[in-house]
Specification:
It contains 13 helices and no strands. Helix 1 packs across helix 9 and helix 8 crosses helix 9. The radius of gyration is 20 Å and the shape is elongated.
Length: 341
């Protein structure tokens, strides 16, 4: 019975990873599609490939943060296997519900923060505030602001440097060069997306396994967790999320290939660097900041600030909304258990 429950929860975690890739596909391909460097079908295949190969060099720093840096793993494990399964199931379902809602609304919210919010909300009924790791949550919350600002700064810097480098060339030649370079920048960002986002679910799967059937083993991330999570997110990316592509690639600002290159490179470098520090940042926030930064180099009016404002509100509400949904799922789960029992 316990083994069956664990397998189901691990499957739900991989489904979340698939939805994460589906939801965040726009982050990886919006600019390369909007600048018409690649067709949508080729773009998602390109992004999915680099999502997957991040498995072989991305590390597991973010996975360890998600597994032990948001909730007190030892306290949760001490509550028993049923508590571990209930908390993780509720966290995943809360995050999935928020992801699907924001996908339907066409808002590029953060899957990272949805999962963090789900973990927080599901833990509160079981362990209370004492079961939360305040320093880890504060770190994640601070990068809601910092990661888009860093992405914006790098996006602006790269755009200015690129423009200055080619200012004597004809627009046609510049466009041709940066169409090729955007293949590289898109690969960098897709790799960073896999590095950061696939690791979150590895941490969740590890909590499930080492909190239940492998209680006597030390917490660590196995190779099969790495491969399966990267495969799930790559498949999700391959199937794409076209509603959000429209918002990110067209509604926010208009990008030429040189702008797409600057935004993707700035966002990707930011995410890779922070992943090495074990900080589960939002790829959505980071690339949005980079796109806004690049757009702002053309003047304040080049960015559609009304769209940007809608996106920011989605950022603000993601953690508390996902937490609330996780609490509701936990309550419903416990009610069903009592009725069945």
């Amino acid at each position: 019975m316990l083994l069956t429950a664990v397998i189901i929860i691990v499957a739900v975690a991989l489904i979340f990873d698939f939805i994460n890739g589906f939801h965040d596909a726009a982050n990886s391909i919006a600019t390369v599609v909007s600048t018409r460097v690649l067709s949508p079908n080729l773009a998602v295949a390109w992004a999915a490939f680099f999502n997957f190969i991040a498995a072989f060099a991305g590390g597991v720093h973010v996975a360890n943060t998600m597994g032990k840096g948001i909730i007190n793993f030892e306290m949760l494990r001490a509550q028993g296997s049923s508590a571990v399964l209930a908390v993780i199931f509720s966290a995943l379902m809360g995050a999935i519900a928020w992801n699907l809602l924001t996908w339907w609304w066409g808002l590029p919210s953060s899957s990272s923060h949805a999962l963090a919010g789900g973990m927080i909300g599901a833990t509160l009924p079981v362990l209370g505030f004492g079961g939360l790791v305040g320093s880890g949550i504060a770190k994640i919350a601070s990068f809601i602001v910092l990661s888009p600002l860093i992405g914006m700064t790098l996006g602006i810097s790269l755009m200015v440097a690129s423009t200055w480098t080619v200012h004597r060339q004809t627009p046609l030649r510049v466009d041709a060069w940066f169409r090729r370079l955007q293949l590289v920048s898109s690969a960098i960002f897709s790799y960073s997306h896999g590095t950061n986002d696939a690791q979150k679910v590895m941490g969740i799967i590890a909590v499930v396994l080492f909190g239940t059937i492998w209680k006597d083993r030390p917490f660590h991330i196995d190779w099969w967790m790495i491969i399966s999570c990267h495969a799930a997110i790559a498949l999700g990316t391959f199937f794409g999320g076209w509603r959000i592509v429209r918002t990110m690639g067209h509604s926010l600002t208009k990008l030429a290939p040189i702008g797409g290159f600057s935004a993707e490179t700035g966002g990707g470098v930011t995410i890779i660097a922070l992943a090495e520090l074990g900080i589960p940042v939002s790829t959505t926030h980071t690339i949005t900041g980079a796109i806004v930064g690049v757009g702002s180099t053309k003047g304040w009016r080049a960015v559609k600030w009304g769209v940007a404002g809608r996106i920011i509100w989605a950022w603000v509400f993601t953690i508390p909304a996902a937490a609330l949904m996780a609490v509701l799922v936990y309550g419903l789960t416990q009610l069903v258990v009592k009725l069945v029992g």
